[in-house]
Amino acid sequence: MTTYKLLLLPGDGIGPEVMGEAERIVAWMNGRGLASIETETDLVGGCAHDAHGQAISNATMDRALAADAVMLGAVGGPKWDGVPYDQRPEAGLLRLRKDLELFANLRPAICYTALADASSLKRDRVDGLDIMIVRELTGGVYFGEPKTISDIGNGQKRAIDTQVYETYEIERIATVAFDLARERKRLVHSAEKRNVMKTGVLWNEVVTKIHKERYGDVTLHHILADNCAMQLVRAPKQFDVIVTDNLFGDMLSDEAAMLTGSLGMLPSASLGAADERGHRHALYEPVHGSAPDIAGQGVANPIATIASLAMCLRYSFFLGETADRIDAAIARVLDQGLRTADIKQDGCRTVGTRAMGEAIVAALDGGS
Ligand code: IPM
Ligand code: MG
């Protein structure tokens, strides 16, 4: 059995608590002989800033580059509101994305039947929802230069962010989206703002070309990003795969996530290009943030982190069957009526982080 090296970066806020439950699942897999995973733990975000004055140290970056996969909890919190911009906790996450070249961010939004009533939309709109948002993650306005604030006199300043995309960046993310669609309902919506942005014009052109050349078996619709945001709350089940740029993907994925009832449920994978053996740099993290308001109380929902581990098994460790088992165990525990506080419901039992993790392990043991 191949031994995989997994770097754990729990980060700030509820990060360490939810990561603890992912570690419980790793221990369960190792113990049952289902996997051979070696973990190391290191710092990222505010805690790394406190320790080294940087949101991620070079030594931690080296470990991330050497690992088969990285799992991140969450970064940030009010404690670091005043730190210089380039040392803020988020800078650690952005450096990981950039230096590992994790250009493809996969954010599934799945609505578990047991949770359909927790959505802010009516049950019939979201029950059975299964969308995959494919967000470009290493380009666009997040990284484009110039990115400055300058003094222009008379007490005025000018702030500039730059949205840049080159053909190859759009090609490779479109390819990821079309390949994923082939495993799903063969439907891709490509979201941009070609009506006002040059990057939108190029995005549209490149996606159209890739589709025509290689993916005739997949249906492609182009949609303006603002309309996409609106359609997501009007009739979300019309979507299968949505491919979009870094900034629109940030917003559309939060919106899609909320349709499912709780941000605390949703995993994500950030992937680099695969080498000849199919291996790639990859980072897995829950979509939710560090939730400083509930940190340290043992009440955070660990499901998004555990589901992120399942994605790690699927995309980095070639253990799709065990990933399916974990996903099924999560659904079973929800069906049994166990809830963390963020998804609490009348008639269900509210449990803490740890009890939720233990229940998922029990469900894994019960159902093989
Ligand atoms: C996300 C987050 C990050 C982003 C922040 C923390 C920098 O919102 O992963 O969606 O904007 O990409
Ligand atoms: Mg975001």
List keywords for this structure.
alpha/beta, two-stranded antiparallel ribbon, Isopropylmalate Dehydrogenase, 368 residues, ten-stranded mixed sheet, 12 helices, globular, binds 3-isopropylmalic acid, binds magnesium ion
Report on this structure.
The chain is an alpha/beta fold and 368 residues long. It has 2 domains: 1-103 and 272-368, Isopropylmalate Dehydrogenase; 107-266, Isopropylmalate Dehydrogenase (3-Layer(aba) Sandwich), CATH 3.40.718.10. 40% of the residues lie in helices and 22% in strands. The chain has helices at 15-31, 46-52, 58-66, 89-99, 123-126, 167-182, 198-214, 225-234, 246-259, 303-315, 320-335, 353-366; strands spanning 3-11, 36-41, 69-74, 104-110, 130-136, 144-153, 156-162, 187-192, 219-224, 241-244, 267-271, 282-286, 338-339, 349-350. The strands form 3 sheets. A 10-stranded mixed β-sheet has the order 2-1-3-12-11-4-5-10-8-9, sandwiched between helices. The chain has a two-stranded antiparallel ribbon with strand order 6-7. It has a two-stranded parallel ribbon with strand order 13-14. Helix 1 links the parallel strand 1 (3-11) and strand 2 (36-41). Helix 11 (320-335) crosses helix 12 (353-366). The radius of gyration is 20 Å and the shape is globular. The chain starts with a strand and ends with a helix. The mean pLDDT is 96. Magnesium ion (MG) is lined by residues 250, 254.
